[in-house]
Amino acid sequence: MNNSDTQPKGPLDRFWVVVDPTPVSEITDVLFETDVRGFMAQVRGGLDEERRPRIFADRESAEADAHARLAIVRGLAAIAKATPTDDVRNAARLRLLDADGKVVFEADLGR
After folding, report:
1. Reduced to 3 states, what is the DSSP secondary structure of residue 22?
2. Burial label, 19 (beta-carbon count in 10 A; 0-12, 13-18, 19+)
3. Which label site among 20, 42, 47, 60 has the fewest CB atoms less than 10 Å from its CB?
4. What is the pLDDT of residues 7-41, one digit of tens each?
5. Does 97 map to a domain?
């Protein structure tokens, strides 16, 4: 058994943080690895609940959340730029496709 698997994890262990992106954010703007001291420095530097920080123990889960947040913000920006307001007002369903055209997310918009 790997000795690190049996060691208790303490408050200074490293973890992953994901925050909400802006329309021009890249993955490195919304996903970072840190420890408690680094996270507290981020908070002192202005990170607050409006950016909706979420903490993850593993990189894979953090990356999935970060990419989902980026897709949402980029999708909203693309819709706002390309679609007249009246068309958006009548939108009833949202569908997100991957590069191969496979549906990765679909939802009714509550109309």
Report:
1. coil
2. buried
3. 60
4. 556 655 899 999 999 889 999 999 999 999 999 99
5. no
